[in-house]
């Protein structure tokens, strides 16, 4: 592990829990951030391809969003409002409904949850079970949905699940499309489970999925597969939950990741970049007929964090006014071109996957699982913050800001390519 470049390392090592993780990979003090750049106390700049795990799609300290937030604070606006009626919440709901949902033909109720995505997953599972009066859930191998007990039950990673300390029940895991099991028809398998009286599986309350498995290694479901899944849920009266926490808010090239398949989930989970500025916020969108909640059946003190509503509305305004979807097309094409035409040819074992502004470079076919970690460390040394994901962390995941400028994007891809070439040369030399 790299050594922290400051004498205050003892504060973290002595007083902060061992559970800390990202700081182990990027062990310097960060003190300034703007756009796609982070600056450490060493005055060195780093291009951010992590973006707070997808919480900063619009970049660090986006000028437009910041202006709206500071204006609200300067006027002594309410900061914490529980779930009481406030102007920021009213404006956020109205603006999102009129400019985002209605034009897409989406008729959803809004529900604001605790401040993190996992709380919204918990709410979605509770709602689906209460509506259907069924307890089981189908989830997918490779899926990541959070770290609290309910969301952890539908998360597949052993290392996460084992830390729960209790059994995680009532979930059946299904292979994802073209994921770990190649050429396996997972949707036929689902129907077999539902129709076979000897399958041992009962009809679930819900099926939960990410249309792009981000932490699972950047596997993007096809349009056809998503349409078939929607049809199965309709046929068997199963609630379809789309977890758009990391790959929503424009990450896949459209605001919602499921738009490319022209489907409508019954429940949509949003968090991370929905607040626009990195403020804690999570929410559900769900079909009106599912709204059987009794008052306070699911609540959370910070579901009324007003700065998140201010930032969220400003982010939607920025999204529309800057024609972000159009500008992302060329950036996505550039990333894909470099990955497929310049990086993949470095070794035939490298696999490239992705969509929009999320891409993965898979080194899983190599015998040495330490390769991605060595590459990401080399990138960090050269000024690029990038993480690995997937099984055994063999996939380097690209998660740049949606607003990254072309020059910065070119520099980042150059650093990444050099690091990969360097590591492959080390393998050959040794």
From TrEMBL:
What Gene3D superfamilies does the annotation carry? Aspartate Aminotransferase, domain 1, Type I PLP-dependent aspartate aminotransferase-like (Major domain)
Q: Which GO terms describe its molecular function?
A: diaminobutyrate-2-oxoglutarate transaminase activity
Leader sequence range is none
Coiled-coil annotated spans: none
What are the names of the required cofactors? pyridoxal 5'-phosphate
Q: In which pathway does it act?
A: Amine and polyamine biosynthesis; ectoine biosynthesis; L-ectoine from L-aspartate 4-semialdehyde: step 1/3
Q: Which domain of life is it from?
A: Bacteria
Q: Which PROSITE patterns match?
A: AA_TRANSFER_CLASS_3 (PS00600)
Function in brief: Catalyzes reversively the conversion of L-aspartate beta-semialdehyde (ASA) to L-2,4-diaminobutyrate (DABA) by transamination with L-glutamate.
Q: Tell me what this protein is called.
A: Diaminobutyrate--2-oxoglutarate transaminase
Q: Which gene encodes it?
A: ectB
